[in-house]
Amino acid sequence: MKVVLFIVMTIYSITGFTQTSGSVIKKVPKEYSLEAGYRHVFHQTRIDNKASQGYGALFDYAWQLSGFDGTKAKSFISVPMGYTIMLPDDASQKRTTMLNYGWTVRHELKKHARWMPFVGYGLFLNTLKFEGVEGGVFGHQTQFDFGYNFNTNSRLQYFAKIQYSYTSYPQLNEPERIKYHYADIRLGVRF
Q1: Pairing mode, if any, of strands 17-19 and 157-169?
Q2: For a FRET experiment, which of 22, 111, 136, 160 has its CA 20 to 30 Å from that of 99?
Q3: What are the start-end ranges of the H helices in the chain?
């Protein structure tokens, strides 16, 4: 029964419909985001390969959860997919790539503002691969971000944010789990 309820709620949220007063059905507002930026690993454990700087991009599909009538700040839930390339610190190291996807939640901190501050957090699955090594390893990523949307008179909305992420992977021929702590600076556009 729980599985059936989960499937029904997932289909309900994906179709983007919500019931309002009376029998009127309206579409839930959606936002698409595209972002890119710089990543710096400031702490990693139990791994010989050092790749501490890189760049990445992410596409995001979000549904508005609150703030429909303008009396409260807006909140969104989204499904992001991103890819990051970490460059080796020296020629003896290997390039590292990360593919991540999951769920994020973003809260705007004001009801109306041209410069709209927001906070967000996300839970991701993350695939780590090393150049020249067949296969990869799956891990868990937790992310927190803070940024500003710049609202324009068009449908486009620009944003900048900083984010902190913690990622943990199984051993991968190491005595303990591999752990990364990194920060990103991202610029993007929402439409």
Answers
A1: unpaired
A2: 160
A3: 2-15
Residue range 23-43, pLDDT digits in tens: 566 788 999 999 999 999 988
- Dihedrals φ, ψ of 152, to 5°? -115, 175
Q: In sequence order, which residues have a C-beta less than 8 Å from that of residue 123 and are 6 or more positions away?
A: 102, 103, 104, 140, 141, 142, 143
Q: What is the DSSP letter of 74?
A: -
**Strands in the chain per DSSP E:** 17-19, 25-27, 30-45, 53-66, 75-87, 96-108, 115-130, 137-151, 157-169, 178-190
Place of tokens 């993007």: 188
Pairing of strands 75-87, 53-66: antiparallel
First to last CA, the chain: 38
| Secondary structure of residue 51 in the 3-state scheme | coil
